[in-house]
Amino acid sequence: MSRSMLYSLFLVGVFGTLLVGCSRDSNVRKVKYLESGQRYAEKGKYREAVIQFRNAMQVDPDYVAAHYQLAQVYLRMQEWTPANQELNRTVELQPDNYPAHLDLANLLIAGHEFGQAKQEEDLLLQKQSNNPAVHIAAADLFAAQEDYASAIQEMEKAVTLGPDQWEPYTRLAALQMRMAQPDRAESNFKKATQLNPKATTALLALAGYYQSQSRFTEAEQELHAAINADPNSPDPRADLVRLYMSEGKKVEAEQLARQVSRDFPRDSKGYRMLGDFYFAIGNVDGAFSEYSVLHREHPNDIQVKKNYVQLLILKNQLNEAAKLDDEILKASPQDVEALIDRGQIDFRNGNIKASADALQAALNGDPTSGVAYYHLGLALDRMGNVAQAEVAWQNAVRLRPDLSDAHFALAKAALRRGDMPRLEQSADEIIRLLPASPEGYALRAFSYITRGQFAGAENDATKAISVAPQAPAGYLQMANLSLARKRYSVAEGFYAQTLDRDPSSADALSGLMKTYLAQNQRDKALAAAQAQIAKDLNNSMFYDLLGTVEFEYRKNSAELGAAESNMKKSTELDKNNTDAWVKLCQTQAARGATEDAIATVQQALQSNPRDSSLFALAGQLFESKRDWDKAKDNYQKALEIDPRQPLASNNLAYLLTQTGGNLDVALSLAQTAKRGMPDSPGAADTLGWVLYQKGAYRSAIDSFQQALKLAEKSKTPESPAVHFHLGLAYQRTGEVVLARQHLERVLKIDPNYSAADEVRTMLDHLHG
């Protein structure tokens, strides 16, 4: 063999050895990274574990074990999006990794992605039909879609396949509770504890069952058993604190929470318990004081920091809250809780667009966050996106039915729309969640008062007073009920009691002033407003109410100045008080200063750029100047913000008929206005006028007649325009006598009506 050939063989051998060595080295390195990551994960050091698993994947991008372990860590960190990505990558690389398919199914169910979850479940039921966990996941999928009967069937299969496993029994019992089968549920809760007397989850579930049935002694026994079974966990003690609270044993609850905080100095759940207890009972000052200490003692506890940020927000210490929240987001930019806090901080600082962006980012990370939807609704509402805000709040209560703040937001939205059935529904939920709070009863009472259901209203108002004698809510509704019944002296007394308890209550002052006005006691109404202003000089709504009476009940034009002055004061105190802005413009227009009114509404829009009512008002002002283009532009802007804005819909519809616009568009707008203002004579008249222009004379007559009836019902002065329109319509249908009657009525109401000459000409023709 030649020397050159020997040298070549030597090189081949060397390179072969190097390649084998490199391959062996890379396998060793990725395994070492994997094992290191697993050790970090076992110690709860998840960020370090993520780094090591990613190091393993850098060595081998298709390393299935690293992808799957990384997914597990993300699940523990509650970072759902990357967990989903890693699980998908795992099953892509290893299609028969059924534990990964199961984890993915559970994650998809939690994210309400039911279509994809079903695909995973179908595969698992085909390949792993004897696995109890697969049937548990199938039950969860049915339950998430509120098909509890099917969920129970699947959970029963899980019990049959794993008769010695305690967990399926507790899950089955929970489903049976949803189906109002308490006896069956109790049997299965007990079965779980019999199978494993040391399973604290089963003991806690049985205790929860007893608590739901008001069997408090038995519930306490099970909780003590859970404490004995796991003396090193604060969780059973937390449930015992909640049990004491449900029994009204606040002293015992606080004592236990304080003891747990001392007994668990190294367990976050333990040392946080007293602060969390204070927060749960609404003692923000107590919670803040406790968490101020905890944050100093445990600066690296991320949950302490997050809770402290939330309390700083509630205490309006926004700079400190922002500083700590920035620290959290710097370490974890997609942290959902931190993004929600960022949204709240921006909202309170007036950065509403930034608030909405942060909350949307939170929802991108966790589409199931009811809290994020609630706060997004607040931001959208402040931006004037009322309809979108309601959708956000509806999503909030769908995802978190126990979120009372979202139910309150929906109640307020229903109040604004005058939707009393919806208000009652929201009040029912608030009562269910907060039976010891007066607010739910008071809201339901108001819905009953508005619909004339006085007996139900009195029961709820009485209940509101009984559960909270020092709160104003019940007294306010008793006052509103008395006013509705025209029991004026009783109403005055209850309004006074409300203001004693809440001197800043604009609703109580408004009701008291209405009570005086109903008795033609204008001066008393003004005096009541002035007396309350003396107690609260910076209450925007008080000046609004005073100016309103001065404007609407003025004895002469000279009093317009006082009304205008008080409305200006109201807007200075609260630039978001659109009611005051609107009335300020109205006072200016009433004294003939249309240009001043236009300047005012434009100033109002600088602070409230998404308020559709202000654009509608601007449209009216330009219309009064016969500036049709600017009027249309402002009505259209109002409708871009809120397509259901009734005033803009009504006025634009009428304007289109006067300027040769599209009558089909006008009809759609008029119908929208009628739906939004069903009791408005003007909306009925506009709809009738559009129908008249389209040649639908009989339908137009029906609308005009309804306008007259609504005006009579609301004691609105007769409108010559409605009679004029009705006369024209009757002329078109050949009903001469009726046409003549309504045209003659026009001249009796207002001989100087703008179309009076046309009316006289028509009457001459009809008489001839």
Q: Explain this structure to me?
A:
With 768 residues, this protein is an all-alpha fold. The protein has 44 helices and no strands. α9 (167-178) runs antiparallel to α10 and α43 (736-749) packs antiparallel against α44. The protein is elongated, with a radius of gyration of 35 Å. 45% of the residues are buried. The model is unreliable at 1-20 (pLDDT under 50).
Quick take:
It is built from 44 helices and no strands.
What are its keywords?
single chain, mainly alpha, 768 residues
Taking pLDDT < 50 over at least 5 consecutive residues as the criterion, the unreliable ranges are 1-20
Residue-averaged pLDDT: 91
Q: Fraction of residues in helices? A: over 70%
Strand elements, count: 0
Q: What fraction of the residues are assigned to beta strands by DSSP?
A: under 5%
